[in-house]
Design brief:
Largest interface: A-B, 90 and 89 residues
CATH architecture of the largest domain in chain A: 2-Layer Sandwich
Strand order of the largest sheet of chain A: 15-12-14-13-17-18-16
Strand content of chain A: 15-25%
Helix content of chain A: 25-40%
Number of strands of chain A: 18
Organism (chains A, B): Alkalibacillus haloalkaliphilus
Pfam families (chains A, B): FAD-oxidase_C (PF02913), FAD_binding_4 (PF01565)
Shape of chain A: globular
GO molecular function, one term (chains A, B): FAD binding
Number of helices of chain A: 15
GO cellular component, one term (chains A, B): glycolate oxidase complex
Family (chains A, B): Belongs to the FAD-binding oxidoreductase/transferase type 4 family.
Oligomer: homodimer
Chain lengths: ~475, ~475
Amino acid sequence: MSKAWLDELTEVVGEQYIQTKKSSLIAYSFDATPNFQALPDAVISPKSTLEIQQIVKICAKHHIPIVPRGSGTNLAAGTTPTQGGVVILFTRMNKIIELDEENLTITVQPGVITETICHTVEEKGLFYPPDPSSMKISTIGGNINENSGGLRGLKYGVTKDYVLGLEVVLANGEVIRTGGKLAKDVAGYDLTCLLVGSEGTLGIITEATLKLIPEPESKQTLLATYDSIEKAAETVSSIIANKMTPATLEFIDQPTIKAVEDFSQVGLPTNAQAVLLIEQDGPAQLAERDIQTIEQLAVTHGAINTSIAETETEAHNLREARRTALSALARLSPTTILEDATVPRSEIATMVNAINDIAKKHNVTIATFGHAGDGNLHPTCTTDLRNEDEWERVEQAFEDIFEKAIELGGTITGEHGVGEMKSPYLEWKVGEQGLQVMKQLKQAFDPHNIMNPVKMFAKSTRKRVVVK
Amino acid sequence: MSKAWLDELTEVVGEQYIQTKKSSLIAYSFDATPNFQALPDAVISPKSTLEIQQIVKICAKHHIPIVPRGSGTNLAAGTTPTQGGVVILFTRMNKIIELDEENLTITVQPGVITETICHTVEEKGLFYPPDPSSMKISTIGGNINENSGGLRGLKYGVTKDYVLGLEVVLANGEVIRTGGKLAKDVAGYDLTCLLVGSEGTLGIITEATLKLIPEPESKQTLLATYDSIEKAAETVSSIIANKMTPATLEFIDQPTIKAVEDFSQVGLPTNAQAVLLIEQDGPAQLAERDIQTIEQLAVTHGAINTSIAETETEAHNLREARRTALSALARLSPTTILEDATVPRSEIATMVNAINDIAKKHNVTIATFGHAGDGNLHPTCTTDLRNEDEWERVEQAFEDIFEKAIELGGTITGEHGVGEMKSPYLEWKVGEQGLQVMKQLKQAFDPHNIMNPVKMFAKSTRKRVVVK
């Protein structure tokens, strides 16, 4: 340990909580995103906001990059220590500080596992809706930094809709507290909202107060099977047009169905071209009424089969099967790229067909599933990054997918974040002036660029050939 | 018209759309906030984003302040042209651009009246929930700049929860577009959220895409009468504790009841110490079930009378009566100050009692009503600003109220904004570091400080004597 700043950091947390051995550094050199890797100089596990302040002050003095990391489940290379420096873990800051049943809030440290929050509040009849597929292992700190979505977004929104207040250590080591246990607060700029989804580039979140809502009384689960993607997409449009807001409205295409069924064996129809997994929750009568109306709409729009889960076990298995889509597809090949191009929901069918055309054009394998109700698709490529020729075609295909999403009024990322991976494409969505504003904002918060550098902002934007 | 920059502006919009006569300037020298007034140099009514860009570029070149103004209904001196300059009106940018029934969005220019949006979407069975009391005359641009709340906030949230995308002219005259018709978008920082509630200090909103939801199928309205404030507050707590989320949960104290009844004559019990106006919406059976449960809770917690409106006319009258609270109280005296201190909802009773104690201590008259479900109270002082001695006591009283709100974990403003009026108190809520970050952010967006200057940030913070 030759570097003086490492000694300073060790003094803050104690030798036990700083790792500098090569073997440890390698473990934190990548996250769930293929093809992005870089060694940090140290991995540190502070126990308190105060220790984080001290760490940041040392890093600020020496201009050392800081990468806050939850469980590293993100899919946009948001937590790779691209420029080395210090990876901060929150494994020792994983406490639920307070569950306030009067104000319907829960206050947590960033290291708490998302599912732990869900289970804790459910015991009190309360509900924390954001449920990214990784919720069993992802941390709430990671979810907040990425503004994670999930399967319940259509009706309940995403992480940002549930963050009421934050404690944040700024790039100068000072602490701010934003918001509070408040349903409404317009005192100054909405820093809470700005920090949610800022991918660790503006500050380090050290505590969060989350909004809870009453738990829905009951839930109904419907599986609708189609012999064409268009008919599934038409059903999605008709549900919205009929003023229904299901809790979940998931689309799964044939290759994904097959992979999931092979993996989970819950009885999905592997010869169907598409299925919709639809859930409605609320008071029993209402949920039943809605799911029946939705079933009728599915039939009207050409579903070849529909079935409402008869038991909670059956419903749970369907839901969990959907959650395993990434793991199931990942078994098929050495490398899996899961993207999250998002379009206005009226463009779902157009986008799915475009993805399939793009896959054909570049001769790559892409399965697609996702949150149809949100227009948020997950085109997933099973490939092998050691095959250089194919890898290049995969990159070309995703570039085409991003371009198509933008052309349809969509975005390059609906819930995964920009990270390092999509940073060359950010300008496609926000424009030159938008990117300029974001860079100025970053500069205002973090003048020495030590907070998760090289994320969100690329050295250069990929050239875009707009074909209209 | 001696100033060269006025000639330049005239060239942009034409003589017809720029006012520089003293009589016109006086009309725009103040907004709905008492005791704040300053003459602008010109009042200008552009017809397009392009004209606004040209106006901003001229103002940027000459360092002329720009004050965007909707209908001037704000209560925090958010639109007084404190440093002169140009007031921009949106009377010619008042078109509904598109109602998209497939994606459930409406795209509007900033000058559209809020109520017009509500009525337009209701014709299609859709719902735009944010409903500030001023909605009959306020503009959507003003609502977005102030992140306006309303009576339906508890269940449906506030303006920021419905803004999906913005077109904004920056301080350099360039245009950015944020978000879109997208349920989810995490491409870069959430500029949409940051701009909502930024009070015109970061840019000029020239277009907005708003989220719509299906219109609730039915509505039930309950009036509960109390002989003590505590019992009303206990009812509020018990409703939340029983996992109910009413659409509206309004508190009105005795002085407000009396003023409203004198004004509206809808049959409010003028001898009651407090009433709660509670509404639930949704499918008929559910709304009925909920309102009956809530009625039972009101009785259990000591309501001396409860009544469910039997007709929509009766319900409408009660709702409209509540909306007239400010107008009704304003008739009582030459000057009315309506504040919006907000606390965690568990602190409602403590806060109302504290307000009454503070009024007594300073010998001033304060009536209180507000959105109890949100912890958002409107202590309203009827006074006369020509009475210098009393005016000083009024200011002292509100200072005490802000301090108490902060002490209870609340905020100085729940839905009105900071403006010029509350700028000396912003640091009380956000802290020295928080204020510093906000100033840096303002500097990043608006380096020459031409965008609504002297709003949000005061020259100095009021000294706060924290008594614990």
